[in-house]
Specification:
Length: 325
Amino acid sequence: MKIPVSKFDWIKNSKSMLPKGNWFVEFFTPGELHAHKAVKVLETSKTYFQSATLIRTHTFGKVLVIDSETQSSEFDETFYHESLVVPALLMHHKPENALILGGGEGATARDILNARTIKSVVMADIDYSILEFAKKHMPTWHKGSFKDPRLTLLVQDAKKFVERTEQKFDLIYSDLPCPIESGPAFQLYTLEFYRKLKTILKPDGIFAMQAGPGTPLQFELHPAIKNTLGRVFRFTRSYSAYIPSYDMPWTYLYCTDSPDALPENFSAPALDSEIKKRLKTRLRFSDGATVIGAFAMPKYYRDIMAARKDFITAKKPMFFTTSQH
């Protein structure tokens, strides 16, 4: 006996799917979506590189939308940014300088500058308009980091900076958008670029980056990046955090040549001790147990990464976006 789906009031059709109001909708697959109720459009900025809109949502407060994708929300941006920054910041024996590739909201800089040992941070972001947009309209993200005298803000292509600088860094963070075909960021996801990046990282330095979705429905980008970085660094480690406004886990990669900086060498209590010693303000998302647990990738994902052999080069780039439909 066939039962029509319309018989169940909890199954919605396209006309009755969303409650009254305006909704920002992202389709992750043809059969999966995530929607934010948009209360108000606060600001917009369209540049040669990307389109940014800051909206006020019912549940997550202010949400930054870049090229029709959720970038970060006022409610949980610390989940994303602390996950990117804190592991390397705590596991390096004494980080004094850092480089950020991208990071337009200023929140990555904010979390790095929270460390007492940090003397200087260079941030290279290509889009002047987005930086000005963030300075003016996103103070709860950057919390004044753009005015910190330890920060050098460079409005330029991060790739060119890496290729031309003579500076060496303890920490390098890649907080770039995913490598969409129409954007400039895909050139910073290649084997050739990572090899050049390693030359400006000190021998005991750590490179950390956002590395795409950790959902089983979109787990193509992370293994390819990991394989690429595995040809450059002696050690690569995957980790993840669930970001509620993304409606999915998000992954990161931690790379170093230093055995002393490996995550498995640290305990939660040891990291809690470092947090107390190194950081000036209290963390909202992270502590020792959170950081250690983030590196426990489920078997399902480890099996996929073990099976995948592809890597990314300038001649064979990889393009990816979460809103694929």
